[in-house]
Specification:
- Helix 4 links the parallel strand 4 and strand 5.
- The protein is of the alpha/beta class.
- The chain is built from 25 helices and 15 strands.
- The protein is globular and about 75 Å long.
- Helix content is about 50%, strand content about 10%.
- Helix 17 packs parallel to helix 19.
- Strands 1-10-9-8-7 form a five-stranded parallel sheet. The protein has a five-stranded parallel sheet with strand order 2-3-4-5-6, covered by helices on one side.
- Belongs to the methylmalonyl-CoA mutase family.
């Protein structure tokens, strides 16, 4: 037929983001998904693994195996990939601060499988910049973190040339509020910083920089405005080609090609009428597949019920089948690019590209992406942008079907099974992982461990590439917490800017004025001053978008807000509540650890003599768990269906008035 390609395009790599409970359970899930036609693996790690803690560390309490698989040492990695030939696999690992460590474990296990480094194909995300801005699993300051990234890139170019050592990740930037222009501009600024660091480090010869560029990949978000998303990716590809040709003088157009994978937008999935999430996921997939010249190399789709909890294998299968139907049943892959020559698409692409250039130039004027992180510029821009998006949703200017329009609904047969419509993590997982890591330490030879860690500290204090010392640690039986702990001793830890100082939510709706008046009158009833709200993020959960938006709206309503950022212990939250003499404590927990973290704070307040201080909680909290929290003493439980921030702040005033016996 006229217009068809002479040979049909090959489908993209199809993945599902998977991993939970234990390495053994996750291995069974991987093998089941591969048997169903999945063509690549995408590993989700739990928060202790992502932030460099072993399961028996006090900071890991309640987080082990919840949002991913715990990997504490070489034995866990062996179990994770048992029976999976790594020479044939294409493995994506969503790991950042501890990316070098997980890659080292993977390399050693691959060697045990008989696979050489040159045979390994896959990706480590390894984009630490977006962790400071949106996801919060950073450990070290920007400088040492960029060194780890640079060392990994240099090592893979020489030893694992098919491996993508970094996946510059704009996905979480969109979830944190980035517009398409900001998403492209901020991601390109990160890529420029990484390439500059590799070039300037001198570990890669100048004539091999093309190989570095060719192994740079991106991980992007695709929202429901799929026409705009398609144009965004065309603009992204054009700008990447331009930057790599001019700034780095890469001659080979194949090396300059934008190589990207996608996870479509989980932020837009709703708890209300969750069946609507299916069509959202399909439309978002179209945004990164319709344009052949800007088509994703790999796609992983969320499941319809991710706003409710951890998806089951059946839910992941449904998302995989969406990809397979599009790639194998439809005629999408039969044709050249559908949009070449379209003036509408060309104008949209040019507009996004021009805006992204301006963002990139602004970041460069500030001194580059690291300086823009440290100054708080990038975080403030994202918080403000997300506040504007929330304002549009609350005002109805931006429609979310089932949430702010067409909210009447029939009962969903998909959720009639109650708690059974999401995967349940066995409470015994953490106890088993804790015992297992202690047994691993007892069984190993301590001398090689001590020697490997001493070498790692010495190399970190100098200028040597850290990948060989990290691989030596993996072989010696070092644990995740020990590897990260050694580097913490040398590099220190980093607390990123919160971005709240200059952000404002504006007048989201006409009711904000009335809430301001209630805040003022309640403060007067309590004896003057301002109402004080402590917003706390207990545990290792770094997804701070919701907490930040509550903080911005509460401040706009007249509260004095104390927000110290992510990753606080219950003891630190209690101490801040007492020291700041707050009227209300609000906790945000999105990792599923609420039944461990929240009671710990309540117990701490009682021990400090402040059992009277009210506490509210927000997060992805199933109804049975919400009942348990209320029974434990929590005054209110907010979930994603509570999208109206001004109404939430009004309820916070109610809680304070009730706690103080005010009418």
């Amino acid at each position: 037929m006229e217009g068809r390609l002479s040979e049909r395009d090959r489908p993209w790599v199809m993945r599902t983001y998977a991993g939970h409970s234990s390495a053994t359970a996750s291995n069974a899930l991987f093998r089941r998904n591969l048997d169903k036609g999945q063509t690549g693996l995408s590993v989700a790690f739990d928060l202790p693994t992502q932030t460099g803690y072993d399961p028996d560390d006090p900071l890991a309490a309640g987080e082990v195996g919840r949002v991913g698989v715990p990997i504490s040492h070489l034995g866990d990695m062996r179990s994770l990939f048992a029976g999976i030939p790594l020479a044939e696999a294409n493995t994506s690992m969503t790991i950042n601060a501890t990316a070098m460590w997980l890659l080292a474990l993977y390399v050693v296990v691959a060697e045990e499988h008989g696979a050489a480094g040159a045979e390994l194909a896959g990706t480590t995300q390894n984009d630490i910049v977006k962790e400071y801005l949106s996801r919060g699993t950073h450990i070290f300051p920007p400088g040492p973190s960029l060194r780890l990234t640079t060392d990994m890139i240099a090592w893979t170019v020489a030893n694992a040339p098919r491996w993508n050592p970094i996946n510059v990740c704009s996905y979480h930037l969109q979830e944190a509020g980035a517009t398409p222009i900001q998403e492209v501009g901020f991601a390109l600024a990160t890529a420029v910083a990484v390439l500059d660091a590799v070039r300037d480090a001198g570990q890669v010869p100048a004539d091999r920089m093309g190989e570095v560029v060719a192994r740079m990949s991106f991980f992007v978000n695709s929202g429901v405005r799929f026409v705009e998303e398609m144009a965004k990716m065309r603009a992204f590809g054009a700008l990447w080609d331009e930057i790599t040709a001019t700034r780095y003088e890469i001659k080979d157009p194949k090396q300059r090609r934008l190589r990207y994978g996608v996870q479509v937008n989980s932020l837009g999935l709703t708890e209300a009428q969750p069946e609507n999430n299916i069509q959202r996921i399909v439309l978002e997939m179209l945004g990164v597949t319709l344009s052949r010249s800007a088509r994703a190399r790999a796609i992983q789709l969320p499941a319809w019920n991710e706003a409710l909890g951890l998806p089951r294998p059946w839910d992941q299968q449904w998302s995989l089948r969406m990809q397979q139907v599009l790639a194998l049943e439809s005629d999408l892959l039969d044709y050249p690019d559908l949009f070449d020559g379209s003036p509408v698409v060309a104008a949209l692409v040019d507009s996004i590209a021009a805006g992204a250039r301006r963002e990139l130039e602004q970041i460069q004027r500030l001194g580059g992406v690291v300086a823009a992180v440290e100054s708080g510029y990038l975080k403030t821009e994202l918080v403000a942008s997300l506040a504007e998006r929330r304002r549009r949703i609350e005002s109805g200017d931006e429609v979310v079907v089932g949430v702010n329009r067409y909210v009447d609904t029939e009962p969903s047969p998909l959720t009639t099974t109650g708690a059974d419509h999401v995967e349940q993590v066995d409470p015994g997982v953490e106890a088993h992982a804790t015992a297992a890591v202690r047994a691993w330490r007892e069984a190993r030879d301590p001398a090689p461990v001590a020697a490997a860690l001493a070498r790692l500290r010495a190399d970190a204090a100098g200028t040597a590439n850290l990948m060989p010392a990290t691989i030596a640690c993996a072989r010696a039986g070092v644990t995740t917490g020990e590897w990260a702990g050694a580097l913490r001793e040398v590099f220190g830890e980093y607390r990123a800017p919160t971005g709240l100082s200059a952000a404002t939510g504006g007048d989201a709706d006409h009711s904000l004025t009335a809430v301001r008046e209630r805040v003022l009158s309640t403060a007067a009833d309590l004896g003057g001053g301002r109402l004080r709200l402590l917003v706390g993020k207990p545990g290792l959960d770094g997804h701070s978008n919701g907490a930040e938006q509550i903080a911005v709206r509460a401040r706009d309503a007249g509260f004095e807000v104390i927000y110290q950022g992510i990753r606080l212990t219950p003891e630190e939250i209690v101490a801040a509540a007492i020291e700041e003499d707050v009227d209300l404590v609000g906790l945000s927990v999105l990792s599923g650890s609420h039944l461990a973290a929240v009671p710990a704070v309540l117990d701490g307040l009682r021990a400090a003599g402040r059992a009277d201080l009210p506490l509210v909680v927000g997060g992805i909290i199933p109804p049975p768990d919400a009942d348990k929290l209320r029974a434990a003493g929590v005054a209110r439980v907010f979930t994603p269906k509570d999208f109206a921030l001004t109404q939430i702040v009004d309820e916070l005033v109610d809680v304070i008035r009730t706690a103080n016996a005010l009418p």
